[in-house]
């Protein structure tokens, strides 16, 4: 039997399981009472028990109080730091004296000289800041009062990661004494020595620190499995410089962007050491530039980033940029200089560079020495980048396409600006650096290596052999020399007509080449969806595409028409299978002519040398394992998404592929040992890539590094490889609760968790409950083990109708019982408050609302978890769907054979002739022969009732596509839903992209009170469906179907759909035209983005007074609260004209796409609706008139109640008696009626009138009188 233990009381657990496990489970989940976790969080109000994490607002304030809880962090997080030690504040007094006055030329001499003395006071302190429970892996950014720390404001920053070998800080020890200084083991902290406080108002600022706590060393995950990495970016003048280089022209550091007094390279390699701790080899990729795809004209050269005026030389210190003794161009000429990299004009008129310049010689030398000093073995990897600016060709090509005539190959290598100059210079750098452990003579020169001369030989190969011999001679016998072949070229060259040769075999067999180098980007899966199962991915190394079959074209792939060329025999299939590395390695290679083996074998000796994957990797994009070799970079001609990818960010598939690859080749069954040399077939694997620009500053600082946009979907592993899996966090929590590894199973929890923080003491069960809320998993006890499973995973088990209706002693034989929760008890909307990954961990809210329903309940979920806005939206979508689907609780009686079922299993049972899907929450024994299953419905066709998901993380085809300009509308209208009621006035913001580029959201900026700056007022994370009318809309009736009028709209973004009347009556298809809220049932597409709207409901939500003839070009906005945020501001600013600014994310208020928008908010969201059913009746006896009306409400008016809620703080009305347009009398009353006496009538009109014109408006304490209703009453 199985129970959902996360839903049971501790007593039940203790009694039902028994022994040590029961006690441990009781400790983990004890003192917890209730139903299913999701229903406890979101279910009926009377049963709701919130599982709540740290308040998201709690993760932003620092302090120095004793007794604060030390946060526990998994993954990456920004947390407030607590002052744990402070040395007294030191005051430094600075006095400056100058003489002013004292004579001068002309007119009567001068006044006496005066001495002016200025005294300023400056304050410094030494402080230790506790961060979180250790050990952690890395400490990234430090903020002081929300501003990144300026390294110039502190003498030294020392980082302590909280491990058990931590030693006391030397400064604290010197001040407090050795016997009184704790090492603070188990606490991660930083020490800021001589922190300058004056920039922070001479007080201690709020400290916040970004940290990364990765998996423990015993976890065999990617970051612990990887042993070798390629370090890029290969270009950037000081990218590999271990020392800070300063610009003498700009008086600023060039290569120190990480908030530390260290170079970017030094910080990045420190991060590599900590985050991928088992790396032994670093392949340092170093690039020059090729200028043509034709070997006859391709120059290979260094390039500089900028030129310099002669009077500003030297322009940098302590080193000057130089390659082969030659520097950058000097304005006006003046000696030899390298050319500049290609550039382009940015929209703001400034100049952008397509590449960073060639890395300075001295930096390469010092980088090699620095890496060696840290214990790494270093391979130098010469690399060609093609700097052929568009449009010749466009975009930038791959070096593998350099080709041409056989007669020109020699010139490509031997010209003064040829390849030999480049590779020999690389050898010199390696020598100057004290030697290297490996040297790559070239890489991926596919087209070059397939050039054949008239004799049928390959002229480039002897040059590679000669280069290998020279490298071996110069760099020593211990230096591993190889060529990095593309995965498509290492094996054979198919010349067509089944003629096959092996051009590189002469190189592989050469005595100066130590290993076979392959850039091994082979396809590992072949399915139209993402694969995360490591066993499936690993199997792709010895099966699947390019081993068992291949595709001729994309159409064959789509139709799964697989096979090998019919000319090839089955025996030869493995010969042509380029992914079958083992077959190639273990066998001789005989060329084919017309498919027939011809001539002697090549020089390759089977099993003679090991293979190194000089590169391998997987991009962090959906379906990456289908095509690991592709990448998304709009600058490159090779920019593609993998087969069947939706272009969504997917770091989990990247990690799974790395782990699967490392684990596969670590198995001796897959990786045989050569009997010739005792070495493994695949001996070393270099992961592409780790960047020398430190994460997270790269990719965040796009103003410094223009390729940051490519990072999200690229092959980079920093900031990705170490991201925690949900299974690792739940495992850690179970161990903390006292469970042993054999008492639980978390293997099914394969979601990525970027960051999770616990900031207060709470039961372990509650910590797991927060994760359950975000990641939708359950746990049940089965056979003495706590099993965690993804909710809804697995294939449903079909229960036959004959198995339903088992009973105890022929008692109640009802087949199935269903209890349904009232809809009004369920939430209509969910707000998911989370920490936004894209906004430096600041709090964001994603709102999801059910489009149909009578409930007005809103649930807020606070998750101290780092999420993207798309992920938070998806959580809200699924949670809301599960709540409404699960409003039916089901009891089923089954025979004993159903004992195979476990809690969390999905079953399908017939109900009234239709199979319903049920998720089991408990499976227990009744009397002998009876199994009782309790569950909740998980079907019901619910998704159609919900707003479409707001995004899957997908981005357009170009990851670095420019940001699109945006259109913004600010509109002041009645609130869309009761949950939007607020004491402060608000309005709505809608935005959409209006040009080419990528939409990441729109920021609205409000001027500060002094109008000297702007602050973020709101962010629209999702585009709105927007446009304008292209025909007039005539006046029509209010509150009933207008089947006569129609209006045509042209959309700037989005689409519209027709809906049935009942859906419209339930609130769907609401739109704003000008200032009128209306709804439409029919949306007829009549052109591209153009719709004719008809079957209208006019004047909705109190806007009947806006039913006018709307002219052409009136704004049109489809109303959707999940897409239109509500900025708020003070009551005092109602009616004020404010100059707001807006810009597409991530730009600020001064960005090149930012715009000003002047808008006046009149507070319409607080304005009471106009009263209805005005009535006036005269008392014949007294002549008094009784005026009465029925009020409306802004809030809660959709329920069928005898009287709608008041909706205001107090009930009040202003009644006015009119004479034409003149107000004769105004009376405020507290009830919906007024006696207008005969005496008052005579005073107003001179006599008792036969009719009166009067109006009435409900009054709001904040807004004042609302819209008035007016009527002329005949008495």
UniProtKB/TrEMBL annotation:
Stretches that traverse the bilayer: none
Naturally occurring in which organism (per UniProt): Rhodoplanes roseus
Domain Tip attachment protein J: 760-923
Residues in Rcc01698-like C-terminal domain copies: 1024-1117
CDD domains: GTA_TIM-barrel-like (cd19607)
Domain of life according to the entry: Bacteria
Pfam families the UniProt entry points to: GTA_TIM (PF13547), Phage-tail_3 (PF13550), Rcc01698_C (PF23666)
Domain GTA TIM-barrel-like: 419-699
Protein name (Swiss-Prot/TrEMBL): Host specificity protein
């Amino acid at each position: 039997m199985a129970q959902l233990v996360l839903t049971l009381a501790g007593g039940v657990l203790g009694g039902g399981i028994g022994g040590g496990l029961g006690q441990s489970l009781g400790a983990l989940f004890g003192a917890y009472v209730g139903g299913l976790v999701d229903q406890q969080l979101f279910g009926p109000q009377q049963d709701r028990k919130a599982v709540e994490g740290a308040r998201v607002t709690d993760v932003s304030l620092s302090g120095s109080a004793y007794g604060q809880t030390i946060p526990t962090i998994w993954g990456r997080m920004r947390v407030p730091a607590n002052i744990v030690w402070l040395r007294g504040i030191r005051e430094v007094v600075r006095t400056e004296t100058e003489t002013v006055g004292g004579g001068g030329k002309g007119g009567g001499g001068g006044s006496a000289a005066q001495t002016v003395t200025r005294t300023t006071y400056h304050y410094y302190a030494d402080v230790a800041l506790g961060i979180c429970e250790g050990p952690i892996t890395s400490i990234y950014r430090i903020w002081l009062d929300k501003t990144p720390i300026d390294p110039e404001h502190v003498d030294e920053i020392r980082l302590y990661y909280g491990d058990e070998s931590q030693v006391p800080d030397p400064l604290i020890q010197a001040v407090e004494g050795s016997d009184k200084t704790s090492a603070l083991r188990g606490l991660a902290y930083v020490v800021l020595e001589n922190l300058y406080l004056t920039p922070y108002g001479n007080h201690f600022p709020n400290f916040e620190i970004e940290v990364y706590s990765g998996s423990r060393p015993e976890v065999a995950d990617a970051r612990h499995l990887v042993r070798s990495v390629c370090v890029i970016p290969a270009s950037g003048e000081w990218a590999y410089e271990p020392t800070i280089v300063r610009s003498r022209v700009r008086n600023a550091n060039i290569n120190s962007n990480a908030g530390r007094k260290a170079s970017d390279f030094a910080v990045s390699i420190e991060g590599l050491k900590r985050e991928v701790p088992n790396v032994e080899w670093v392949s340092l990729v170093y690039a020059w530039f090729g200028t043509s795809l034709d070997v006859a004209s391709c120059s290979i050269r260094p390039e500089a980033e900028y030129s310099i005026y002669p009077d500003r030389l030297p322009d940098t210190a302590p080193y000057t940029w130089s390659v082969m003794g030659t520097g950058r161009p000097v304005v006006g000429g003046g000696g030899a200089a390298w050319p500049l990299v290609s550039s382009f004009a940015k929209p703001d008129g400034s100049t952008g560079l397509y590449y960073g310049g060639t890395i300075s010689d001295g930096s390469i030398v010092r980088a090699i020495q620095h890496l060696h000093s840290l214990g790494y073995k270093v391979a130098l990897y010469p690399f060609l980048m093609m700097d052929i600016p568009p449009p010749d060709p466009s975009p930038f090509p791959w070096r593998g396409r350099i080709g041409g005539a056989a007669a020109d190959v020699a010139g490509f290598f031997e010209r003064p600006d040829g390849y030999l100059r480049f590779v020999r210079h690389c050898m010199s750098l390696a020598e100057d650096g004290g030697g290297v452990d490996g040297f790559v003579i070239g890489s991926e020169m596919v087209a070059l290596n397939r050039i054949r001369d008239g004799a049928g030989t390959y002229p480039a190969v002897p040059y590679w052999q000669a280069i290998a011999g020279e490298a071996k001679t110069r760099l020593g016998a211990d230096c591993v020399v190889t060529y990095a072949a593309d995965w498509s070229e290492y094996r054979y060259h198919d010349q067509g007509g089944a003629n096959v040769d092996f051009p590189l075999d002469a190189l592989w067999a050469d005595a100066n080449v130590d290993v076979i180098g392959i850039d091994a980007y082979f396809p590992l899966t072949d399915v139209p969806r993402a694969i995360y199962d490591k066993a499936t991915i690993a199997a792709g190394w010895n099966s699947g595409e390019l081993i068992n079959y291949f595709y001729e074209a994309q159409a064959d792939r789509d139709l799964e028409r697989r096979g090998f060329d019919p000319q090839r025999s089955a025996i030869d299939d493995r010969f042509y299978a380029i992914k079958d590395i083992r077959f190639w390695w273990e066998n001789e290679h005989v060329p084919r002519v017309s498919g027939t083996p011809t001539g002697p074998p090549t020089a390759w000796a089977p099993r003679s040398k090991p293979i190194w994957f000089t590169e391998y990797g997987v991009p962090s994009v959906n379906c990456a394992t289908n095509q690991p070799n592709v990448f998304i970079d709009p600058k490159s001609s090779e920019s593609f998404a993998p087969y069947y990818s939706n272009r969504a960010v997917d770091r989990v598939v990247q990690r799974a592929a790395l782990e699967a690859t490392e684990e596969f080749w670590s198995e001796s069954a897959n990786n045989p040992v050569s009997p010739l040399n005792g070495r493994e077939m695949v001996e070393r694997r270099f992961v592409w890539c780790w960047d020398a620009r430190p994460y997270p500053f790269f990719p965040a600082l796009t103003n410094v590094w223009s390729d940051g946009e490519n990072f999200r979907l690229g092959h980079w592993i920093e900031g990705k490889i170490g991201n925690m899996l949900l299974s690792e966090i739940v495992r850690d929590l179970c161990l903390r609760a006292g469970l042993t590894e054999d008492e639980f199973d978390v293997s099914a929890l394969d979601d990525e968790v970027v960051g999770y923080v616990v900031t207060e003491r709470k039961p372990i069960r509650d910590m797991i409950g927060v994760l359950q809320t975000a990641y939708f998993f359950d746990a049940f006890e089965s056979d003495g083990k706590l099993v965690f499973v993804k909710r809804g995973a697995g294939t449903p088990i079909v229960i036959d109708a004959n198995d339903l209706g088992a009973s105890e002693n022929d008692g109640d034989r009802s087949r199935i019982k269903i209890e349904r929760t009232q809809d009004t008890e369920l939430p209509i909307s969910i707000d998911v408050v989370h920490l936004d990954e894209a906004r430096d961990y600041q709090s964001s809210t994603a709102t999801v609302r059910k489009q149909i329903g009578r409930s007005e309940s809103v649930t807020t979920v606070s998750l101290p978890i780092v999420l993207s806005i798309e992920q938070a939206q998806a959580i809200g979508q699924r949670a809301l769907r599960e709540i409404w689907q699960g409003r039916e609780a089901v009891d089923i009686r089954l025979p004993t054979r159903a004992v195979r079922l476990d809690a969390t299993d999905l079953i399908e049972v017939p109900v009234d002739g239709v199979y319903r899907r049920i998720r089991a929450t408990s499976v227990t024994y009744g009397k002998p022969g009876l199994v009782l299953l309790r569950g909740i419905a998980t079907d019901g066709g619910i998704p159609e009732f919900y707003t479409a998901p707001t995004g899957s993380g997908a981005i357009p085809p170009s990851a670095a596509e420019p940001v699109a300009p945006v259109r913004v509308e600010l509109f002041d209208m009645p609130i869309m839903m009761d949950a939007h009621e607020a004491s402060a006035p608000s309005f709505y913001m809608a935005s959409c992209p209006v040009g080419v580029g990528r939409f990441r959201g729109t920021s609205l900026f409000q001027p500060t009170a002094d109008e000297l700056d702007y602050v973020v007022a709101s962010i629209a994370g999702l585009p709105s469906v927007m446009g304008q009318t292209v025909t007039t809309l005539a006046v029509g009736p209010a509150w009933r179907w207008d089947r006569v009028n129609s209006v045509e709209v042209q959309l700037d973004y989005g689409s519209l759909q027709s809906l049935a009347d009942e859906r419209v009556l339930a609130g769907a298809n609401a739109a704003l035209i000008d200032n009128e809220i209306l709804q439409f049932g029919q949306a007829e597409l009549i052109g591209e983005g153009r719709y004719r709207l008809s079957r209208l409901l006019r004047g909705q939500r109190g806007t009947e007074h806006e039913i006018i003839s709307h002219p052409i070009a009136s704004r049109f906005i489809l109303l959707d609260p999940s897409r239109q945020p509500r900025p708020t501001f003070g009551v005092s600013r109602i009616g004020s004209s404010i100059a707001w600014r807006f810009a597409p994310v991530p730009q600020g208020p001064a960005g090149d796409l930012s715009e000003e928008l002047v808008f006046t908010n009149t507070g319409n969201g607080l304005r009471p609706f106009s009263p209805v059913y005005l009535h006036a009746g005269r008392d014949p006896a007294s002549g008094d008139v009784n005026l009465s009306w029925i009020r409306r409400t802004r809030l809660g008016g959709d329920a069928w109640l005898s009287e709608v809620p008041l909706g205001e703080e107090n009930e009040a009305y202003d009644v006015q008696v009119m004479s034409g347009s003149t107000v004769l009398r105004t009376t405020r009353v507290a009830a919906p009626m007024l006696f207008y006496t005969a005496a008052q009538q005579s005073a107003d009109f001179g006599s008792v009138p036969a009719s009166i014109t009067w109006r009435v408006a409900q009054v709001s304490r904040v807004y004042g009188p609302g819209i008035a209703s007016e009527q002329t009453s005949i008495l």
